[in-house]
Amino acid sequence: MAAGNIDEVVDGLAEVVRDARRDGDRIGYFAALYRQVTVEVRTAIHQGQFDDGARMDRFDTYFGNRYFEAYDAWRRDRSGPRCWREAFGLLDDSDTVIVQHLLLGVNAHINLDLAVAAARTCPGASIHTLRRDFLLINDILGRVVLEVQDSIDALSPLLSLLDRIGARTDERILDFSIRRSRQEAWHDAVLLAGQTEEEQAETIERLDIRAAVLARLIARPGGLVRPALELIHATESDDVPAVVAHLDRAMERPAARRSTDD
Source organism's superkingdom (predicted)? Predict the structure, then answer.
């Protein structure tokens, strides 16, 4: 699939989510998170929050198509970027917890795709005009992460308990990781924007290798993290369609709670 604008990105992600719910496919976990981020970005465009809304539409479309290209390549013949192959390769692993699947998608999309999409949107010196809008998305990501974290808590009781004991430490770590990754992605975007096609190919290859290494660390962590994940896995829901549906409604719940409070 290929999107021509941000509306088609949202529609394409919604289709992935629908198929995942029907088939019980864990690919819907990250797709549900990503769909909600994209809806929030689209809302911000319509509200005039970005310096250049039309440019952000193009940027988000390039970004979304990077995901669709990886998705289609994996479905076709298990090909595509290394980091996405690492993420998709664990979809049938029932021992991988929900948070791991989300982080694997976030890792590939931010640590590889984001810089590529930014450089394509604003090649050459024009990349610097994108900086404010690029960084503004951090706030959107942070808001979605907060609500999706609440959804995960409902699906994973032990993670919810750790949340309360740790004063939402895991959420702050996730938010910080996303922000730091986006900061690195910005530097990579500036680099790519000033390179020739041959140089870009080499840089993209390097970024893919780095993201693939990070994916392996997320998938198979060492130390005390592994037994902690095993405990979390033992308590969280294994109903994949229900998990996908729950995650896909994460951003609807704040409005519902505000309505109830009123």
Answer: Bacteria
**Scanning the structure block, which residue is given the tokens 């629908």?**
18
Contact 244, 164 (CB under 8 A): no
Distance (Å, whole) CA 188 – CA 92: 32
> What phi-psi label fits residue 103: left (phi over 0), alpha (psi between -120 and 50 degrees) or beta?
alpha
Model confidence at 99, pLDDT cuts 50, 70, 90, reads: confident
Closest to 173 measured CA to CA, from 104, 122, 103: 103
Residue range 163-200, pLDDT digits in tens: 443 444 444 445 446 667 778 899 999 999 999 999 99
The average pLDDT across 213-230 equals 80
Residue 257 CA to residue 259 CA, distance in Å, equals 5
User: Can you spell out the DSSP letters for 67-106?
Assistant: HHHHHHHHHHHS-S-HHHHHHHTTTT-TTS-HHHHHHHHH
Distance spanning both ends of the chain, measured CA to CA: 42
- Domain ranges across the chain: 6-251
Q: What is the DSSP letter of 112?
A: I
At residue 159, the pLDDT reads: 56
- Give the C-alpha separation, 15 to 133, whole Å: 28
Query: 119-125, long-range: CB within 8 Å, 24+ apart, which pairs?
Result: 119/189, 119/192, 119/193, 119/200, 120/62, 121/55, 121/58, 121/59, 121/62, 122/55, 122/193, 123/193, 124/193, 124/194, 125/193, 125/194
